[in-house]
Amino acid sequence: MKNFTLIIISAFFAIQLSAQNKIDITAKYGLKSKAMSAVLHLQNSSAVEALFSMSHNNNKVVLTGLYEEFFPIGNSEKLYWFIGAGLHAGYNRIHTKEKFQELKFGEILETKTRDIITKEYLSGADVIGGVNYYIPALKMVVGIDIKPSVDFINKNSMMMEGNFKLGIAL
Questions:
Q1: H or E segment at 40?
Q2: Which of 44, 52, 98, 124 could form a disulfide with 151 if both were Cys (CB 3.0 to 4.6 A apart)?
Q3: Which residues pair with 130 in a beta bridge?
Q4: For residue 88, what are the CA distances in angstroms to 40, 52, 53, 69, 77?
Q5: 110: β partners
């Protein structure tokens, strides 16, 4: 919960890059991870998103870059659906336990267990789709998205993630 609070607080300290482009800084909280996202809206209905995410137990850290297209729902200028695709890279910390025997002069004194932590680097591809609602009076964006991904290097070959997001729209 402390990390999620830090993500929320940092989301409110965003910098607007230019007066022509709109930036959304959002904190995302999903079933498997928490994330900080920055979406830079380009001149047309497209955007680029940078997403930094961590698993709830902080064992998986991933940086994702996405290209997204936004489409209004009906005649609304506040409600949009979007789709996109991109790539990610990061690492996964793996905790395993190993049993070993303590020996003295060839005799087994006792059997012990030790923790072994290894890092597994990963990269892969992502797609994303969702709905955003902009609240101009509060300069806020609220949305929901789903981002399935496939890891190319990791033996856990596919992961599905859904997020609820709340953030600032500059």
A1: strand 33-41
A2: 124
A3: 82, 145
A4: 18, 10, 10, 18, 31
A5: 102
